[in-house]
């Protein structure tokens, strides 16, 4: 059995991983995965090992326009590209301030100069 301080530290590590909390339960009480669930995850990772990640044509500094979601119609600039997650971090101006927002590739398009 894991002692309480070690267990708390493990919970802190898991809850600090982005997107892990929704996967393993709530932030205050993550749920342990069952052995067959872990085996299934590793099986899928092994199966996809040879699958290449498709690289996007987005690059840091590209001007974009948001085409879907709550920021639809906003223009911004790509700040970072995450090909493995198929996401970009863009800076858009909200209430006069540059704000970084992470979006899916399909939520943005290149903004053509007028």
Explained architecture:
The protein has 114 residues and is an alpha+beta fold. The protein folds into 2 domains: 4-47, no CATH class; 63-110, SH3 type barrels (Roll), CATH 2.30.30.30. The chain contains 3 helices and 5 strands. It has helices at 4-15, 20-24, 35-47; strands spanning 63-66, 75-82, 87-94, 97-104, 108-110. The chain has a 5-stranded antiparallel β-sheet, with no helix packed on it. The chain is flat, with a radius of gyration of 19 Å. The chain starts with a helix and ends with a strand. The mean pLDDT is 81.
Total beta-strand segments: 5
**Main sheet overview:** 5 strands, antiparallel
What CATH architecture of the largest domain would you give? Roll
Low-confidence stretches: none
Can you give the mean pLDDT?
81
* Structural class by helix and strand composition: alpha+beta
Percent of residues in β-strands: 25-35%
Q: What is the strand arrangement across the widest sheet?
A: 4-3-2-1-5
What value does the Rg take, in angstroms? 19 Å
CATH level-3 fold name of the largest domain? SH3 type barrels
Q: Which CATH top level class of the largest domain fits?
A: Mainly Beta
Taken in chain order, the helices and strands follow as HHHEEEEE
What does the overall shape look like? flat
Number of self-contained structural domains: 2
Terminal-residue CA separation: 65 Å
- What proportion of the residues is helical, as a percent range? 25-40%
């Amino acid at each position: 059995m894991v002692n309480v301080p070690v267990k708390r530290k493990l919970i802190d590590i898991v809850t600090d991983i982005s997107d892990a909390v929704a996967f393993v339960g709530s932030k205050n009480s993550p749920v342990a995965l069952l052995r067959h669930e872990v085996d299934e995850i590793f099986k899928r990772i092994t199966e996809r090992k040879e699958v290449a990640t498709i690289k996007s044509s987005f690059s840091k500094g590209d001007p974009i326009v948001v085409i879907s979601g709550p920021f639809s119609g906003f223009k911004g600039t790509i700040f970072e590209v995450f090909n493995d997650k198929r996401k970009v971090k863009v800076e858009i101006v909200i209430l006069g301030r540059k704000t970084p927002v992470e979006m899916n590739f399909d939520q943005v398009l290149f903004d053509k100069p007028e």
